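SEQUENCE, STRUCTURE TOKENS:
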Amino acid sequence: MEVKISSKHQVVIPKAARKKLHLPKDGGYMVVKNVTANEITFAKVPGHDGGIMKYAGIAKGAWGKDPVAALRKMRDEEWD
């Protein structure tokens, strides 16, 4: 398979390769395994294919804009 390198040095992983690797639609993580003068080898990072990573940031903003202040307020109310 041949891919084009963008002006920002980005490449698109061909659909056949994505399917074979079971990469999620919203991305995923790859690690560079080996680099030579003519070849770069990537591997899928285990544990970054959905799993718990899909829940990262799910509670963002749950404590408001200043979570430290919210926790201090709760602590101070308990001490009163």
In short: The mean pLDDT is 84. The first strand starts at residue 30 and ends at 35. The beta strands are 30-35, 40-44. Residues 67-79 form the longest helix (13 residues).
